[in-house]
Specification:
Layout (H helix, E strand, L loop, with lengths): L1 E9 L1 H12 L7 E4 L17 E8 L4 H15 L9 E6 H7 L7 E3 L3 E5 L11 E5 L11 H13 L7 E5 L5 H8 L4 E6 L2 H13 L6 E5 L2 H7 L3 E7 L2 H8 L7 E13 L3 H9 L3 E9 L2 E8 L2
Parallel strand pairs: 6-7, 8-9, 8-11, 9-10, 11-12
Antiparallel strand pairs: 1-3, 1-4, 2-3, 5-6, 12-14, 13-14
Helix pairs in contact: 1-2, 4-5, 8-9
């Protein structure tokens, strides 16, 4: 089978809008990566993530022309709000699709001691490195997106302040945040995602990293966590701003224990105030923002 790749290079706000469009047509989600520099660039040399590359794939079949026309029509409507580049298309074989993205996925250093490496790349870590080995497959969470990086850095700092921490990874993707939390010292992590592929990938990555006994991953969302009746010391929620706002009205604050902390990613700077206002309605008090280009991560504490 052959697949059509559509790729657009955009700024952060426009990228979020395009992701929403491509999610309707892309097979197994949309890929987002920082554009304009090699991924092996060291953390202190990484430029501001002003440009993002958004990619999606759909089958080259008898519906391809219709899908392409629908995508371009939707992008045309977006062009009234944001300048839209001309989409770039290419056709690739299935085996190439599964492997091609790996060529540009290299080890990444973050925070104080975080080293993220692809499973197929061998590295010699420094003595104090916290190594997270990943094969994200078709799940979100390679560690290259600015939002994922900011949430990981927040977790690296927060987990040691919460002895024996129970951690929730809501929207776990590849499992990178749950795995990182355990490696930073958390006692256990509960990971959930509405995508069954993400749950499978999370379990596989937890096994590879030697933390499968401390991570429980299942298909589900906030409703599942609420039904379990557990309040967590630390919640890591790297999803879209509009979803965070919606979940605030569905009891999101209940998953964090009094005095516990939650970290929210997937937020563009212009959306931060709206997200913070929604968090306040749940009993979560925002106290810190982390920023990388247009992307914001919000840390909030549950009142005692």
């Amino acid at each position: 089978m052959r697949w059509i790749e559509i790729a657009l290079e955009l700024d952060g706000e426009a990228a979020e809008a395009v992701v929403e469009v491509l999610t309707r047509y892309g097979h197994q989600g949309v890929a987002i990566e920082q554009a304009g520099f090699p991924l092996e660039t060291w953390e202190d040399e990484v430029p501001r993530p002003d440009r993002l590359m958004v990619r999606a794939y759909f089958p080259e079949d008898d519906q391809a022309d219709a899908a392409k026309a629908q995508i371009e029509a939707a992008l045309g409507h977006l062009n009234w709000l944001y300048p839209m580049p001309t989409p770039q298309y290419r056709v690739i074989d299935e085996q190439d699709w599964a492997e091609a993205w790996k060529v540009n996925y290299h080890p990444v250093r973050l925070g104080h001691h975080i080293l993220i490496r692809p499973l197929w790349v061998e590295v010699t870590p420094e003595p104090d490195d916290v190594v997270i080995a990943l094969d994200p497959g078709m799940a979100f969470g390679t560690g290259t997106h600015p939002s994922t990086q900011l949430v990981l850095e927040a977790a690296e700092e927060l987990v040691p302040t919460l002895p024996g921490a129970k951690v929730l990874d809501l929207g776990c993707g590849s499992g990178i945040l749950a795995i990182g939390a355990i490696k930073f010292g958390a006692a256990m992590a509960r990971a959930v995602d509405i995508d069954p592929i993400a749950v499978k990938v999370t379990r596989e990555n937890a096994e590879v990293n030697g933390v499968a006994d401390k991570i429980t991953a299942d298909e589900g969302s906030l409703a599942l966590i609420l039904s379990e009746g557990v309040a967590y010391d630390l919640a890591l929620v790297n999803i879209l701003a509009k979803v965070i706002v919606r979940l605030c009205g569905e009891g999101l604050g209940q998953v964090v224990r009094p005095g516990g902390v939650a970290v929210f990613g997937g937020i563009i700077e212009e959306q931060a105030a709206e997200v913070e206002a929604a968090l306040l309605t749940t009993g979560l008090i925002p106290y810190k923002r982390r920023m990388s280009g247009d992307w914001v991560v919000i840390e909030a504490r549950k009142a005692e």
